[in-house]
Amino acid sequence: MSKLVLIRHGQSEWNLENKFTGWVDVNLSEQGVAEAKNAGRLIKAHGLKFDQAYTSVLTRAIKTLHYALAESDQLWVPETKSWRLNERHYGGLQGLNKQATADKYGDDQVHIWRRSYDVLPPKLEDDSEFSQVHDRRYADLDSNIIPRTENLKVCLERVMPFWEDHIAPDLLAGKNVIIAAHGNSLRALTKYIENISDEDIMDLEMKTGEPVVYTFDDKLKVVNKEKLDD
């Protein structure tokens, strides 16, 4: 039986400021650091041991992983970073205050942009200060691959090759895996793992800093799911 632990990064500075973040690289807030450390203490208390760690290339997820591993005395665990685990790209919404956006476009429209499975937000222009087309961490990617906007459907299509090439083989080999990533990249993985419908995925929430533990059989069927809390 292999185990997979998913952790949404702790509260970020833009979570605190109620801004759409997406691929913009922001840091953890003080509360976010505390949440990440607490996740590590919960992992240690439950005796979870990892063979492999994965995270995105965004600071808030990387730091969450490191705090959690450090608190559970597992900072040495091999770690791989991938842009495929990045948060969903929020397009032209990136950098905008969520309430101000709701005031402008209406609560219903913003809810659809945030939660619907296949509706795309407006595209982000390449000359925006919140664009990633000139970010050095994506220099090896074809510019056309770098998103200008994503919905959850596109995010899932982007995440799945990483699942198929890295995460699933690890689990099938009996390894225990931890992934520290983002609300929507983890919602995408959860949708796939649990076979959640396009409609029901709109209601799925991922709490910041809360470890979610899956136990799989040797065919990658979920035999148990547990959320760790105090």
From TrEMBL:
The record, for InterPro entries, names: His_Pase_superF_clade-1, His_PPase_superfam, PG/BPGM_mutase_AS, Phosphogly_mut1
Report whether Isomerase shows up as a keyword of the record.
yes
Q: Which UniProt keywords apply?
A: Gluconeogenesis, Glycolysis, Isomerase
UniProt-listed Enzyme Commission number(s): 5.4.2.11
Identify which residues the record assigns to the active site: 9 (tele-phosphohistidine intermediate), 87 (proton donor/acceptor)
- Report the catalytic activity: (2R)-2-phosphoglycerate = (2R)-3-phosphoglycerate
Which positions does UniProt annotate for substrate binding? 8-15, 21-22, 60, 87-90, 98, 114-115, 183-184
Q: In which pathway does it act?
A: Carbohydrate degradation; glycolysis; pyruvate from D-glyceraldehyde 3-phosphate: step 3/5
**Entry-linked NCBIfam families:** pgm_1, PRK14115.1, PRK14116.1
Q: What is this protein called?
A: 2,3-bisphosphoglycerate-dependent phosphoglycerate mutase
Which species is listed as the source?
Answer: Lactobacillus bombicola
The taxonomic lineage of its organism, from the top, reads:
Bacteria, Bacillati, Bacillota, Bacilli, Lactobacillales
- Point out the gene that encodes the protein: gpmA
